[in-house]
Amino acid sequence: MSRRRIGGWYRLAVIVLKPALLLTTKRNWRGAENLPATGGVITVTNHISYVDPFTFGHFVYERGRLPRFLAKESVFRLPLLGRLVRGAGQIPVYRDTNDAGAAYSAAVTAVRAGECVSFYPEGTLTRDPGQWPMRGRSGAVRVALETGAPLVPIAQWGAQEILPAYSKRFHLVPRQTVWVSAGPPVDLSRFAGQPVTVAVLEEATGQMMNELTALLEEIRGETAPAQRYDPRTSGNTWYGNPNPKQPKQQKRKRSGR
Q: 257: helix, coil or strand?
């Protein structure tokens, strides 16, 4: 991959992060041949840790692709990380605002330009108690149907052992194994030429999430729950820490007696 194609900010990220990942993780990668080496492509992956964009990005980078993630807009306002993700061409997502459609348009433009655009279809860290993929959102499917680009499901596991969800404590010793498995592109051919209705998007998104979950079942050697976790019906919020710490109770002062 040429220096000109990577760009300065992406090159800086690779220089800093790749050695750190090689030092702190062991890798069990499968199915890289399912990710096209050239041309516009959409990837979807499950979200289990704030570390997994880096472990997932490592897999995609070694295939010769530069992932452009859709990331929440607040990341772009962080002092140092924000400058890095902007410079590396990542796509901000303005959740539940009038600007939310800008991310979709940017993703379509990037795919048509031959880039690799990476979605977290759950939209946040999974809230499923067993860390299985939750109900998915339709953005990746919509981009795939509009552009005709392949939609590749890629499951990952192990990053949550390095940094558990919503935790600030890293576990770097011993080195953790990170599993990443890419499957064949999701077959959306039966939806071609159909009006993109809510029903079509729900069916296609369900198929995408089923294939992503099946890949994770192979990695974990377990069967996912028959009913997919849905934050809308669980009484939980879709965003933010679902289990915030309770405020500490003030210690009672001793009476001195």
A: coil
